[in-house]
Structures are given as C-alpha cells and as structure tokens.
UniProtKB/TrEMBL annotation:
The keyword Glycoprotein does not apply. Transmembrane segments: none annotated. PROSITE patterns: HTH_LUXR_2, RESPONSE_REGULATORY. Keywords: DNA-binding. This is Helix-turn-helix transcriptional regulator. InterPro entries: CheY-like_superfamily, Sig_transdc_resp-reg_C-effctor, Sig_transdc_resp-reg_receiver, Tscrpt_reg_LuxR_C, WalR-like. The lineage of its organism: Bacteria, Bacillati, Actinomycetota, Actinomycetes, Pseudonocardiales. Residues 155-220 form the HTH luxR-type domain. Gene3D superfamilies: 3.40.50.2300. It comes from the Bacteria.
Length: 236
C-alpha cells in the first residue's frame, strides 16, 4: 500500500479506535498518543459512527472492538469506504477459536489480537497490519500457517458484504425515504437504486425492505435516528 507508506513517512500511522466502552477507548487513546510512530485519528462507539469517522478522518488502521464488530460484514464496509484502511480486530475471550479467526480474515481483517493483550502486542499488531496480515503470536496456534498466509481457504464462509453504496441506500431506507427520494438524494437513477435495494435484500437474506432494516438494526449496522453519536476526538 504505497499511499499508506507515504503517509507514514510524513506523520506516522493514523489510528482510529472503535469500541463500545468509553474507558477502553480512552486507554487506547493514551497508548497511541505515547507512541512516536502513531497518530490519533479519532474514536467511535457504534458501527455507523465508525463508518463516518473512516470516511472523514482517513485513518490508516482501525482497531475494532467486539462490541462494535457484531458481525464480520462491518469489515468489508470499512474497506469499501476507504480501501487502504487496515482493520485490526480486538477479540474477546469467547472469540479465540479457529472458526471465528477464519471468519474475520475471510472478511478482510488485516490483524487479530486479544482485547486483553498487553500494550506492546497491540502496537505491534497496528504496525504489522499496514504491511501484511498479522495474527498475534498467542493466537497463531489456532490457525494453520497456510491459512495465515492466505494460501488455503479459511474455515468459515461469510455472506456477501454490503458495498458502501448499498449501505447508504439502507440508511436512507431506514429513514423512510422512497426509492424515488433515495435516487434524488444520491443523484442516481431510480433503476440504479432498485438494483442496490435488491442487492441489500439478497445479501442480508431479507424478505423485504422492512425486514432488511430490522436485521441491520439487530446487527448494529444502523442505530435509532436521534440517538446521540459517540463523541470523537480528532487529531489536531
């Protein structure tokens, strides 16, 4: 990723954090600020907030906590918003198994490390994920070497991921807009919007638009309108 490398040479790795616990986000903020090779890009407590943060703050790495990453579908959405972002997933104890690791790597995660790991291992994962797939040393025994290197299919298949445009359409559906209104809002044709809606229904395995919105809320991809956004601290 030559563009990312150029950014690093000027100002260090820009890191964004997504986690449901404010105290944990504060701890990672302190960790990043202490580093001479990293810069803080902001933080979020929900998936929608994180997608907006990635779009506007342009981080090089996103540290993604389990409370926000409720399903691997979020990872392709993040890389769809900005295709140079490296996603490092912070795993809870119950997620430390081969099936879940495989699912995350298939979805596009560039790094996996235990959420309870010491600061050195987390900073190591951040730096390594900008160059290659990084599986923390304490987790490598759960995967075969060929799986880590991407030479062998990983064990758990995932549903096709929503594209960034499909996610936009889903958000507008949740806000109650009709197909014609969505087309006007996104400056696209009505037929294009219908194609995106069909894609959303197929990928979420939804019966109709209402069911798709319900599934997205349940998965944490959407939040209730009017719910306060998670506060963000942007780098100066």
């Amino acid at each position: 990723m030559s563009t990312t490398s150029a950014v690093h040479g000027r100002s260090g790795i820009r890191v964004a954090v997504a986690d449901s616990l404010p105290l944990f986000r504060e701890g990672l903020f302190a960790l990043v600020r202490r580093s001479a090779t990293m810069r803080w890009a902001g933080h979020a407590g929900t998936a929608p907030d994180l997608l907006r943060l990635v779009e506007h703050a342009h981080p090089d790495v996103v540290l993604l906590g389990a409370g926000v990453n409720r399903q691997p579908q979020l990872i392709p959405l993040l890389t769809g918003v900005r295709n140079t972002v490296a996603v490092v997933v912070l795993l809870e104890p119950g997620q430390l198994n081969r099936a879940h690791l495989g699912e995350l790597l298939r979805a596009g995660a560039r790094g996996v490390v235990a959420r309870a790991a010491d600061p050195f291992r987390i900073t190591e994962a951040i730096a390594a994920a900008t160059r290659q797939i990084h599986v923390d040393g304490q987790l490598r025994g759960l995967l075969l070497p060929r799986e880590i290197a991407g030479e062998e299919p990983l064990p758990v298949p995932t549903r096709p991921a929503l594209s960034a445009r499909e996610y936009q359409v889903l958000q507008l559906i949740a806000e109650g807009l009709s197909t014609t209104q969505i087309a006007a809002s996104l400056l696209l044709s009505v037929e294009t919007i219908r194609t995106h809606v069909r894609g959303v229904l197929r990928k979420l395995a939804a019966r109709d638009r209402t069911h798709a919105v319900a599934l997205a809320f349940r998965a944490g991809l959407l939040v209730v309108p009017g719910q306060p956004d998670a506060e963000r601290r942007q780098a100066s």
